[in-house]
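Journal club prep, notes for RB
We'll compare a predicted complex against what the paper describes. Inputs for the zinc ion case:
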Amino acid sequence: MVMKLVCKDYGHDCEFIAEGENVEEIMKNFGKHSDEEHGLWYSDESLKQIVQNKYNIK
Ligand SMILES: [Zn+2]
């Protein structure tokens, strides 16, 4: 399953969509983008929370 996180959904005026085949990959892609493009760094724990909330992963 390909998972997606839309940057816009997290408060940025931005069309970036992070994709990943698994939780780790999408965490990495979204975290990297947010850090590099918006100067906003998420901890691994926060990133995991974001993915879990969106996809209801327990
Ligand atoms: Zn963005």
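Talking point for the session: Helices lie at 23-38, 44-55.
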